[in-house]
Structure formats: structure tokens, C-alpha cells
Amino acid sequence: MTLGEILGVLGRRWYVMVPLTLIGLLAGGYLYVAVPVSYESQSSVSLLDSRAAARPAPAYGNPIANAGGSLVVTADVLIRTLQSSDAGHDLHQLGVTDRYTVGFAPNASGPLLSLAVTGTDRTRVLAETTTLTSFAGEQLRALQAADKIAPQYYVSATPIVLPQEPVTKLKSRYQLVAAVVIAGTASGFFLSFALESTVLARRRRKGLAPPAVRRPHRARRPGPLRRPLDATTLLTGYLALAFFIPSNLDLPALGGVGTPANVFALLGLLWYVASWLTGRVTPAPGTRGPRLVMCLLAAAVLMAYIADGARDSSHEEVLAADRGLIGLLVWVSLVVLTTAGIHERERLDTLMRRLVVMGSIVAAIGYYDFFTATNIADSIHIPGLQSSVAGVRTLDRGSFVRPRSTTAQSLEFAGMLAILVPFSVQQAFDPVRRHAGVVRRWGPVLLMGGALPLTVSRTSIIGALIVILVMIPRWKPQRRWGAIGVLLVSVGALKVIIPGLIGTILTLFSTFLSNSDSSTQARTVKYSAIVPYLREHPLFGRGFGTFTPDLYFFTDNQYMLTLAEMGLLGLLALATLFLTGVHHGGAIRRLARTESDRELGQAFFASAAVALVISATFDALMFPMFAGMFFVTLGAGGSYLGFLRRDAAAGAAGPGAASPDVPASAGAPAGPAPASPPQLVES
Question: Could you give the CA distance from residue 313 to residue 299 in angstroms, rounded to a whole number?
């Protein structure tokens, strides 16, 4: 369905679209005027061990040196105490009547608390923040006194950042205005096309022809409004925005899910719904599996959203739950477009080729970041967009800078490359592309595979090992031994070209296995802190997207985060997502008639296996680029499986059977369809 046709429907149903849009705009304007400007003041408090407890080595009596992970549980107890209704009543008696929040400070691995008060009176907010900071220390002393702890062993709450001058907070007002305007416009859009679909169905029942479409008198090149659109074109636009606009930049009113790529994906979903309602596109046969899995995920997210509304959640958690619903719609859009919107194998091949090429360019940017010890994304500033990730900076490990390219963090960069490398290898070996030069075929493999160790992370190495263990054993011996030789030579080349890199990576794993790595200890100590939150809401969780670091702490584990946010139902949905991707790869390999398709199935299997494993090393789906690439590949696997199923059904029905995609017209002779292997189309 072209843009011109969409505008034509909206024009015919203006009496639906215009009033609802105006209502949304007027309501948004009223909220902008009526909602007062709020101010926020923050302070930071650190828990310090007593000198008596810190006397043994290595702290030597210094409480600051002993403020480690062992106090994280104490900090969690204090946070829960300050968040209780009793503490709220006591603070109200002390004059703290505005909304306050208490949580772990962002990017803090130790017992560092962030306190904030938000209100409409600047002077009052500052005074209330001072009261809250003092009250936190008093509560900690009261908790220890109630347990009859000797005073010399008291843990102290020491302010390290005094209450700051209140700053203006306009984001919440912008979010309310944007939500109302978007709701009005989207309602008008859907109702317009629903009415159009009803009118067309009534005309078909009466045997009337559809409304005539005005056409130009002479043939000419179609303009932007008349140019045909398909799912591959829309997904290509999404990939370009996702790869080349830093994923930490988003629209201020939408928060972390408001990246330009996500907004474009939502527009793609509107295009599909409009085309489906008017009968211009129908879901591709045999591709229902991924969409059913997304229904399970949607059920888990919606139940978690209801659970968040049922408990006494903060304003920030309510907004975070709303953003979670937006993120779910983005993921649904990607899966629907790839599975239901692509009806030609060649167009799907083109999409996968473009995915690999764009991923290679992002990997090349990572090389620049690594060797120049900088980050090119920091110099990209787009008017109207802001950074949603606090403290985005260049990270170091050992003597190396960890690149992040256009991603939000180096772990996202590593994870995204790891799930795309299998497809670059498959396309390099594909006999259909033998006419392409060596650089065009093997350049993406070199760029993405070589960038993985440059991230100096366990995630990247684990991802690379999974790809190797899944793909290489399925190859013929000649190729297998050649690949092993190339890998050994590549490791030696890295050791010579970048001295110390291989040693640093080996040290990462040796310290991990010996449990002497500080980053690993900081992560594992938080796993036990998740348990109390899970016990409170074991089945449906606290709300998808609500367990944010500014309110709680980083989990660095997607499975643990899902347990906290969506409970056991969410964990089941997440595991089903990953296993569905693995199933796609195995099913494609079983149904494939050519070696090229069998290797494509193995690539999907390896990519899904990587996502399944490395999601235990960081909160994978909270990063927009990684999540987007995962759901695109998930949908693409389901789409390829649908093509092979339809080919198998057509082959079983005999050479004279009609294709399931295009039914034979009445009275037309059914001839044998030419049998030709699927061809890759260059992007």
C-alpha cells in the first residue's frame, strides 16, 4: 500500500481522523498548560563499614576501603525501609509532603544510594531533600539499634553528595502531552481504516466494484506518494536508523524506547495494519509460529503491567511500565513485518544481505573507536534527540579502550555482532554469491568477527565460541580444518598486532573461574538481592521495564531482570522466544533441499543459541539495537521456514499444484511451475 493510498483513505474518512486528532491536540495543549513545572533535588549517601569491622586486612581500619559488595544487602534493607508506608508517615510528620524516591545510584556497584525529592516549590524541595538525607542515616542507626548491635560495629550512612540545587523537570509533562496526542492520532488512524474496511466489505457483499482510483493521463515515473512500499523497504529503513543513529539518542518525550528506529518501526506497524484492513496484504502462510510466541510475550507484559498498577508503585515506575508497552509494540512490529509482510524469497534474501552489510559498517566504526581510544558516536548530535543512557562514556579494560561504535554500551556492541556473525559466514560461503569478489564476500566476516575480541569482554568471546561450536562441526572436513587453521592464524595475528589483548581476555576468564573478578562479584551479589522482589510478585512480576537502575540496581542478567519484572510467566515467555529461534534454525536445516539452505538454517540456529546464552551476561533486551536485531532475525527465521514449508507442500502435492501464495484462477490451466533454487538478490 503506497503513502498516497493511505492518505487517500484518511482523506475519505476525514470525519473520523480530524476530530480525534483535534481532540488529542487540544487535550495535550490543556495538559501542557495545566500541569505545573516540577523541580527535583538529589543527594547521594554511601554506606560505610565501621572501623572495628574494617580493621582486618586489607582495609586496615579504613571504613571507606571496606565499603564493598558486602554492604549491598544492607543498602537494600535501608532502601526498603525508606520506601515503606511507616517511613512515609514519619517523613510526612517531618514536613516531607512531596514525592520522594530512594534507590541504588546509577552505575554503582557498591552500597551507594541516590535520594531525590520532586515537587513544584523549588525552596521546599531543597529543604525536603535535606530532611530525607538526614532521615536515612537515622533510620539506619535505628535498624541497628533494634538488633542490639554494638555501637562500635555500626554501619554509617555518610552523605557524599549534599542536597543539590533543584533543577527543572519537564520530561514528565512532555510525556503526558505526547501520550495524549499520540493516542488521539492513532485512534483516528485505526478507526479510519477500520471504517474503510467495513465499507469495502459491504460493497463486496452487494457485488459493487470498489471505488475507482484516479490515475494520471500519461505514464510517468511514480512520485514518493505513489511509489510501492513493501515490508523489506520499511525494515531497511528501520535497520538504517537503528545502525547509524546512536542507540542512546531518543526523543525526550518517549524516553529510552523513543529512538528514531523504534518510532519508524511503529510507523511500519501502522502501514501493515492499514494494508491488512484494506485487503492489500495478507499474512504469509506457514509463518504463524513467531507471532504466537509474541502473543505469549505480550500476555506476560500485560499481566506485569496490571501487577504494577495493582501495587503501590512510584510515578517513575508507572512511566517505565508505559515505556515497556511501547517497546513491546516495536518488537511486535518487527516480527509481524518480517513474517507476515514478506511474500517473496528474493526480498527476504535482500533484507538479510542489507542486515549484514550495515552491521559490517557498524563494526568498522568500532575499529576506529578502538585504535583511536575515542568514540565517534559522542560527536553525533541530532537536534531534537537526547541521550537516555546516564554516564555514557568510553570504557577501559586493562590498557585497552572498549569500543561501542553506535551502540549504547560495549556489551551491546559485542552482543549485536555475535548474533550477526553467523549470517556473514553463511553469505560468504553461499554459492549464489560466488560472482562477488573476495572482499565483498569475506569483508563482513573479517570486520564483524575481528571486532568481537576488541570489545575485551567475556560476552563477545562466549558468543564467538558458540558460533564456532555450532557451525564448524556441520561443515565438510576440508572446510572445517581450513576454518580451524584460519582461526589459529587469526589469534596469532591478534597477539602480534595488538600485544596484550589475548592475555587480557584470558585473564578475564581465569579470574571469573577463580571467583576473584570484582565485576563478577558485583554481579553475583545482586542475584540474591533479586529474591525478595521475586517473592513479592512471583507469577507476574513488578511490571515490565520498571526495575530500572536509578530506582533499584543493575542486574546484568536478562533472565534475572525478567524474573523481577515479569515473574515466572515472563521467564517462560523469554525462554520460549530464544528456543523458537533455535527451532527455526533446526527446522530450516531439516526441510532444506540445497546445501545453501542447510547452512542458512545452521546460521539461524547459531544466532539464536548466542542470544540464549549471552542474555545471562547482560540485560540484553534493554538495549534497543541488540533487541531490534534479535527480533528481526527471529522473524526472518520464521519467514524462511514458511517459504520452505510452502515449497515442501507444493512438492508433495505434485508438479501441477498451485502455489499456496498465488491461488490458481478459475478455469486457468495449471501447469508445472519451473523448479529453480532460491536466488540471493544483491542489495
Answer: 20
Q: Are 568 and 537 in contact (CB under 8 A)?
A: no
Per-residue cell: 376: 565517534
Per-residue DSSP letter, 623: S
For 555-607, how does the pLDDT look when each residue is reduced to its tens digit (9 = 90+)?
888 999 999 899 999 999 999 999 999 999 999 999 999 999 999 999 999 99
Residue 86, exposed/middle/buried by CB under 10 A (0-12, 13-18, 19+)? exposed
Here the cell at position 29 is 495543549
pLDDT at position 515 over 70: no
In b/e form, how buried is each residue of 94-108, taking b as 16+ CB within 10 angstroms?
Answer: eebebebbbbbbbeb
Q: Which residues contact 161 (CB under 8 A, 6 or more apart)?
A: 42, 43, 44
Alpha-carbon Rg for the chain in angstroms: 28
pLDDT tens, residue by residue, 242-299: 999 988 888 876 777 889 999 999 999 999 999 888 888 888 888 999 999 999 999 9
pLDDT at 522 over 80: no
User: Hey, what's the torsion of the CAs at 21, 23, 24, 29, to 10 degrees?
Assistant: 130
Nearest to 293 by CA among 655, 3, 623, 582: 582
CA angle 508, 512, 518 (to 5 degrees): 85
Could you tell me which residue, 213 or 493, shows the higher pLDDT? 493
Output the nine-digit C-alpha cell for 20: 480525534
Task: Tell me how far apart the alpha carbons of residues 388 and 415 are, in angstroms, rounded to a whole number.
Answer: 20
Asked whether residue 389 carries a pLDDT value surpassing 90, the answer given is: no
Query: Phi/psi of residue 87, each to 5°?
Result: -65, -40
Residue 608 gets the label, from left (phi > 0), alpha (psi -120 to 50) or beta, of: alpha
Residue 464, C-alpha cell as written in the block: 564467538
Work out the pLDDT band at 672, boundaries 50, 70, 90: very low
Instruction: Report whether 389 contacts 623 (CB < 8 A).
Output: no
> Which residues are CB-contacts of 202 (< 8 A; sequence separation ≥ 6)?
none
Instruction: Report d(CA 583, CA 390) in Å as an integer.
Output: 37
CB-based burial, 534-570: b 16+ in 10 Å, e otherwise: beebeebbbbbbbbbbbbbbbbbbbebbbbbbbbbbb
Report pTM: 0.80
DSSP string across 237-305: HHHHHHHHS-TTEE-TTTGGG--HHHHHHHHHHHHHHHHHHTTS--PPTT-HHHHHHHHHHHHHHHHHH
CA dihedral of residues 572, 578, 580, 585 (deg, nearest 10)? -160
Residue 398 per-residue DSSP state: T
> Hey, what amino acid is at 44?
S
Torsion angle (degrees, nearest 10) of CA 642, 644, 647, 648: -110
Predicted confidence (pLDDT) per residue in 312-350, tens digit = 777 778 888 888 999 999 999 999 999 999 999 999 999
Strands (E), 349-399: 386-387, 395-397
> If you average pLDDT over residues 38-42, what whole number do you get?
90
**Cell matching residue 202:** 459491504
Contact 83, 64 (CB under 8 A): no
